[in-house]
């Protein structure tokens, strides 16, 4: 079939690109993602107010770009979203640099240095609209270049956005007052402290905004001794390993005024409950139960951290602004169970039913008797060995009884209905190769059955063992050979 190449007209495309619905905070966060992807560990943001206009610069000490890479980077859609990203990479559609910048203003200038060589480009949407063509300037206009400064060291990038019509304007006023401008900048400062808290904490990245260093805001109060912290559960969802960990924040009476205020974040305690979804440690979405539950006052202490790898983008429908996700149905069902539990714990703490007994004790481990754990070969329910009641029993009994208890627990776990695979028992007649650990388990269990006189002879012993889900993978002949080798005595 014949085809003709049709170029989209520049002007309407620009309007569409400018209206993706970025907030100023999400736009800036998307630009910081680029600096982080370039392995920068120092990022310096400046918001300047000139009265009738303003300018935003973001300077980083990342690996910069050469002329060709920069040319490609300035393309609208410079990467195919389906190509695999490097692990840990924050980019997604090859759009962010342009779409985020244009949501703030009409001119984007990029100055970059790679191995000591500078490269520069500039998009001016006024010019693009005027000629209705995607004409990219190969030089940054002097009036902009003069306040962008230079790049220290061998590599790095400075981007500057000005003609800030969107950032400076509001519904009624064309250019906002200086005080409103800086109030907006302060809100962005807090937003970034939140979005990047985990990256700043883990990666030792320094982000400075108008001379003030960002102080990471930890929504989970992990350092507070009264925070209840669940075990990390790994969910294997459509081939991606998703980590989930819940936190129940301390009752208000355990926090001083400062801690209380800060933990309430920008929207207040009630509005900050729910799931916190991170992609490569960068917060994407937070503060709701993904439509599963209401935000009740009594569940306001519950916050659940979900960590996604960037390979889960499509499955979780990460949007272009990296501010929204839609979990796959399979994940929703799992998350709902976890949320139900953590909301209940929150209610108990909120009404002061639980925490009194755990004062000043970092209460690790959940009150769940079972926890879901993921491994390469799928998921398994494992017993929560840190359950407080179990810990108490273990403390109270002697060594011999402790051994018996642990063996029993191992069997309970292996025999959990959810862990039993329904593959038929291997009944072929050859003896299988068995690990030493498995042999040991068979022998331990068999010895107890004999000692307690549950079985009277070898035949009965093997009949008993073969019914155990824990030994599902072993056939009769193998069990027999293990027992004979161990020389267990029933008579
Ligand atoms: N600060 C930066 N330092 C180095 N390279 C950058 C920087 N910002 C953007 N780039 C380059 O520009 C490309 C396009 O960026 P962007 O439009 O945000 O898309 P994405 O981040 O999804 O790849 C990036 O893939 C990267 O190669
Ligand atoms: Mg990007």
TrEMBL record:
Signal peptide, first to last residue: none
Cited InterPro entries: HATPase_C_sf (IPR036890), MORC_ATPase (IPR045261)
GO molecular function: ATP binding
Keyword terms: ATP-binding, Nucleotide-binding
Coiled-coil residue spans: none
tRNA-binding keyword on record: no
Segments crossing the lipid bilayer: none
Keyword rRNA-binding part of the UniProt annotation: no
Stated name of the protein: ATP-binding protein
Lineage of producing organism: Bacteria, Bacillati, Bacillota, Bacilli, Bacillales
